[in-house]
Amino acid sequence: MPGRSEVLRETAIAAVVIGRNEGERLTECLASLSGRVARIVYVDSGSTDGSIAAARAQGAEVVSLDLSRPFTAARARNAGLALLDAQQTPLVQLLDGDCALREGWLDAAREFLTDHPDAAVVCGRRRERFPQVSVYNRMADREWDTPVGRALACGGDAMMRLAAVQALGGYREDLIAGEEPELCLRLRRAGWQVHRINAEMTCHDAAMTRFAQWWTRSRRAGHAFAEGAALHGGPPDRHWVAETRRALIWGAVLPAIAVLGAVVTPWSLALLAALPAQIVRLTRRMGFEAAFFTVLGKFPEAQGVLSFHLNRILGRKRGLLEYR
To answer: What is the pLDDT of residues 300-311, one digit of tens each?
Structure first.
């Protein structure tokens, strides 16, 4: 019977990388995987910057998505997963093309999954490469810093048991955002666990330097909240119901009542004082910068929630909300 160290060595890992026009970021991403995994599949969503040629030059298998169908990250990941065989590569590292893998992550993640047979997903610390460049990058870096231990979901970077993911049909391809938490929810319902471990996983380049980028990204989050709640908002999971409610209350209902009420009495505008009061309250816990953008972010989040429901009523499907 093989020893534990032999089992670890024999557990082969494949990698699925997705991207579009990532340029040098993709080159660094693939270089961080080269020689460390058994197979690299790169799925391209209509790049025009030479990404496909660069990926092939680094030995990756390339899948080019059909341009006639809408692009989603979920669709891209599924296209990569479809090429893999769980018998040959039981584990798969999912990676966004704007991320580079950190040294030691693959061994740490593989060891964790070996030691925890009930875990289907393990993720670690994703860090922003240039948090000092803008407040928006710093907010993204803070977002990635989730608690260590049992988790409800992972992000775009994670190591997964391929057979568990394939058994559930992979990611839900019609989601334009929030596809990872939705998959993790279905995995947990099937009896699997999701974990975040205390290990450096990836270095990410959000490249957010403008307010408009941050706003669009926050709108996308609101859309994801609303769609996730529409799919799985019932008990016991109540998936993203609280997040959707907070976005609507702070970003739409409160301002609307204050402004519309001003037609009857100017005193209704005093309700808007709840916004700075909320900033002060959150500042005690997270600092002023994070508190300010958390409260301000409820406005674009509410916009995303409302646009999802409007499109749903009108029978329209929202296209990608890209901030870069």
So the answer is: 999 999 999 999
